[in-house]
Amino acid sequence: MTTDPLHTQLCDEYGCEVPIVAFAHTKDVIAAVTNAGGIGVFGAGSRTPSELRSDIQWIRERVGDKPFGVDLLMPASLAEGNREDLEAQIPQPQRDFVAKLMADNQIPAPKEIVHGDGQMLKHARESLEVIFDEKVPIFASGLGSPAFVKDEAHAHGTKVWGLVGLPRQARRQIEAGVDVVIAQGYDSGGHSGTVGTFTLVPEVVAMAEGTGTLVVAAGGVSNGRQLAAAITMGAAGVWTGTIWLATHESATEMFIKQRLIEARAEDVYQSRAMSGKPIRQLPSKYGDAWKQPGAPETLQMPLQGMLVADILAGIKEARMEDWMTSPAGQSVVGIHEIKPAAEVVYQMVEEAQDAFDRIVGAPVA
Ligand SMILES: Cc1cc2nc3c(=O)[nH]c(=O)nc-3n(C[C@H](O)[C@H](O)[C@H](O)COP(=O)(O)O)c2cc1C
C-alpha cells in the first residue's frame, strides 16, 4: 500500500511515475512527457503505416522501456463505401456552399488536389498491424471501441484503451474488458460530446468498480488541482491534449500557440465543419462560416472530411491565418506561456501534491 495519492494503479500497471497521460501529434512531446514520468500517446490518425513505424522507432529510441502509446481513430458510425460511392453521397448544396466560400473569400484551390479518400478504417487497420508488430505498450482508440482487437493486442503485449464521451459507451467497453476507459467530457479539445467531465467521470468510475478496467479522466484538465480532483473522483489519472500544444516541443504553429495563450474557456466552440463529428476548436472564419444562417447541415463522417479536404488544404497553403484553427479545449484557460513539456508535467504534479497536502493538513471543523 502506498500513501502517495499520485501513485495510482495506472503507475502500478504501466510503470509511469505520475498518472498524467499526454495526447499529442508531435512525437517530441510524447518522448518528453514519457521521460518526465508520464505517458505520452502519439496521435497517428494522419500518418501512413510506414511513417508510423519510423515514428514508433524514434520514440522508443528516446524512451526505452518507459510507457507510451499510439492513438488512432476508428469510428463506429460512418458512411461506408469506396471513394466513388462516397463522393456520390455528397449533396450538391454542400458542394455549392464550399465552392462559394472559396470564390467569395479568394481561397485558392490547393496545388495538389487532396480529396480525402474516405478510407479511414482501412488505413487505421493497416496502422494497427504496425502498432502490434512494434509491440507498442498502449493502443488507444479515439473514436469507436477498441474491444474488437483486444485479444490480438494482448497477444502482442499491447493494452487497449478507449475514449468515451457517454456512459453507455463506457459500459459497453468495460463489459468488453477494455484495459482503460478514458472518460472524456464536454470541455475537451478535439472530438467531444455533451456530458461534462465532472459529471461523466464518477459515473464511469462507479461502472468500472470491481472490473479490471481503469478509468482515466479527460477534458478541461490543465492544472494539478484538477489532477487531484480526478484522483479523488476515483480516476487512475488524467488524459490531456490541449495543454501540450503550447509546449516548446509541439510542432503547432507559433500563431496558434499565441492564440491558445490569449483564448478564454468560453471562446473555443464545437463545430462539425471539419470532420462531421463535433470538434471543440479555436474560433476561425472557417468555423464561423458554417454557423452562419443559410449554411447547410454538415455531413456524416467521412463525407464532411472529403467535402472540405481541398478548402482546408487551400487555406493552409495560402496561410490564411484567420481561417485556420486547431482543436482546443476549455483547458486553454490554463495556458499562459510556452513551456517545455517536462515543466508542464512537474508543475502539475507539484500543484496536485499541494492540493492533497492542503486537504490532509486542513483543520477539521
Ligand atoms: C489538437 C488536438 C487534436 C486531437 N486529436 C485527437 C485524435 O486524433 N485522436 C484522439 O483520440 N483524440 C484527439 N484529441 C482529443 C484528446 O485526445 C483529448 O481527449 C482532449 O484533448 C482532452 O481534453 P483537453 O484538450 O481539455 O485536455 C485531440 C485534441 C487536441 C487538442
Any overview of this molecule?
This protein has helices at residues 9-14, 27-35, 49-63, 83-88, 92-104, 120-133, 150-155, 167-175, 197-208, 224-232, 254-262, 285-289, 303-317, 341-361; strands spanning 20-24, 39-43, 68-73, 138-143, 159-164, 180-184, 190-191, 214-218, 238-240, 269-271, 279-281. The longest helix is centred in the last third of the chain and has 21 residues, at 341-361. It contains 14 helices and 11 strands. The protein has a domain at 9-79 and 119-247 and 338-358: TIM Barrel. The chain has an 8-stranded parallel barrel with strand order 1-2-3-4-5-6-8-9, surrounded by 6 helices. A 3-stranded antiparallel beta sheet has the order 7-11-10, with no helix packed on it. The mean pLDDT is 94. The chain is globular, with a radius of gyration of 20 Å. With 365 residues, it is an alpha/beta fold. The protein is 41% helix and 13% strand. α3 (49-63) runs parallel beside α6 (120-133). Flavin mononucleotide binds next to β3 and β9.
Please bin the fraction of helical residues.
40-55%
N-to-C CA distance: 29 Å
Based on Cα principal axes, name the global outline: globular
**Nearest-integer average pLDDT:** 94
**Number of helices, counting only DSSP H or I runs of 4 residues or more:** 14
State the assembly state of the protein chains.
single chain
Summarize the helix and strand pattern as letters: HEHEHEHHHEHEHEEHEHEHEEHHH
Count of extended strands: 11
Cα-based radius of gyration, to the nearest Å? 20 Å
